[in-house]
Amino acid sequence: MKKLVAEFLGTFWLVLGGCGSAVLAAKFGGDSNPLGIGFVGVALAFGLTVLTGAYAFGHISGGNFNPAVSLGLVVGGRLPAKDLPGYVIAQVLGGALAAFVLYQIASGNPDFHLVPAALDDHSTAGAFASNGYGALSPGGYSLGAAFLCEVVMTALFLIIIMGSTHRLVPAGFAPIAIGLGLTLIHLISIPVTNTSVNPARSTAVALFAGSGAMSQLWLFWVAPAIGAVLGGLIYRWLGDEATTA
């Protein structure tokens, strides 16, 4: 139970901190206001949530905070398969509660709107920090480009996680590598999909972002899952090679 609570709280923190920075602070005061944290700030915020969350909860649950990461760690031999359903449920619920809290905070500003009033179906790119492709991609990237991006980025994220937590690597530094890795992933892929690599994060905000985000949510479960499996398999082989070298 303590592991599940840790995953719930860690995912809550990731969504509140990462998506909260995008919703509340990215364009604070307008595009020309120096107080807005912008693109780079949002990327850094996501990295910081994982870094701080891993130090806070990693010794309890492993600090996954992400269904794709948990799946990849099962494939990579780092997490018992019996733990996967509970972890995924805890992560999705933690993310959903964070999105609810974020929506309540954002709604306290009378100028807050998920999208321009003319778009009553909320089908706009990046609404409430949601993920998307095609018309809902921040940069207008196609489904194929978005799918490939999410697969590759998630696979590399798993490799970073498994590599930095390998028993031959100095202990205590893994959260730094993982947090910086997630920051870099966001710097690369925010224009493409608004960066998911985390189905719980995508689901949480899609619940509030409307029909467009919900209709495309499937990609942000399928692509990260495929990437996680690939990353787990690749590093399981690489890790065994490193151990026997």
From TrEMBL:
The keyword Membrane applies. Keywords: Cell inner membrane, Cell membrane, Membrane, Repeat, Transmembrane, Transmembrane helix, Transport. It is a multi-pass membrane protein. GO terms for molecular function: water channel activity. Coiled coil: none annotated. The chain crosses the membrane at residues 35-57, 87-106, 141-161, 168-188, 218-238. It comes from Solilutibacter silvestris. SUPFAM superfamilies: Aquaporin-like. Belongs to the MIP/aquaporin (TC 1.A.8) family. InterPro entries: Aquaporin-like (IPR023271), Aquaporin_transptr (IPR034294), MIP (IPR000425), MIP_CS (IPR022357). PROSITE patterns: MIP, PROKAR_LIPOPROTEIN. It is found in: Cell membrane. GO terms for cellular component: plasma membrane. Signal peptide: none annotated. This is MIP: MIP protein. Its main location: membrane. The keyword Hydrolase does not apply.
